Amino acid sequence: MNDQDRAKRRIFLQQGMGLAAGLALPSLAAAQARPAGRDFAGQTLTALVYSGINENTWRKHFVPPFEAATGAKVVIDAAWTEGIAKLKTAPGNQAPFDILMTDPIQGYPAIDEGLFRKIDLKNVPNLQKFHKRIVSGRVYDEGWGVPFISSAMTLAWNTEAFPNGLESWTQLLESPARGNMMLYSLYYMSLYTFAAMKAAKDRAVGKAGEMLMNDIDGVLRFAKENRDAVKYWWPSTADAVNALARKNVVAGNIHGNGLLAPLRDKKPVNGRIPPGDVAYVQLFLVSPKNVKNPALVEAGLNYFCSEEFQRASAETGELPSNIPAIAQAHGQKDSIWATAYPHTIAEFDQLQYYPYDAYFKHLDKIRTTWEREIIRK
Q1: Which domains are assigned to the chain?
Q2: pTM above 0.70, yes or no
């Protein structure tokens, strides 16, 4: 490795700047004046990320610049919820990956089981560029990894049935949506939807999360009383979009990012995120407790949080940016993308995740009631 390559790697590690962004590099003398960075040549970083657009984005926008700047080799594996199972079945001293993408439903229990190592967040300075609402919660507070947003619970409708659109979750309980609507079959979204309906009906918009924490019996009772209003419990986002576009149902909840492609294709669908009881899926990047290259892991997490990668994420047209300035700039260019993701400071300030703490507090009761008395009646 020559001195120029070493200089580029130092700049990348210290400033979180990727070469793929086309940034002008400082002179060799300026780079050499900085504190020495780590040289990761000969090391391998394996990341298990969600299949689909996340995998494609990491392969295209993470691997080349990170390899060029660090000398490390990056291997991308892809899965959905299988990551924790792979980790549990791996030999005790042989982590199958260095970075894992997961969510609270899978990841919180794994944290409690001691499967992950804590991250030295001082070595992930780019995380400070994320909005404070995004990093709120256990993962960041306890130092387990990097939290970031995914899809939002979105009120969706068929535009032929509702040419003027919908404004409130409570409209799902009114004609013509009542008895002709869809909800996700999994409780983490749809129980919150019921809570948002109840909050709107009770003139307590913004209190859905508190209701789930402090009055779970009331919310479950409300869900049971209104479960017959649901015509279709959709199992996947693609099924939800198809049902809505074909007018098999006229409205319901959906992952907001699932509407992006049909909106671009001018399908008869639309959606909005009603203010008040906002709920985003939280994802996070963590690292198994027995990884052999923690410094490389932290460099990888820092690049994920960098302006370069977060800008590339938004420019896919399907993934969010967790950095407000980048999201705001991209939202001004892509109005369809802006329907699914926060892009103004006001939207970031109102951002909140699904009430995972409430779910874990009442987990047994929720699971039993949801499966036996709501989904299966």
Answers
A1: 3-150+281-350 (3.40.190.10), 151-280+353-375 (3.40.190.10)
A2: yes
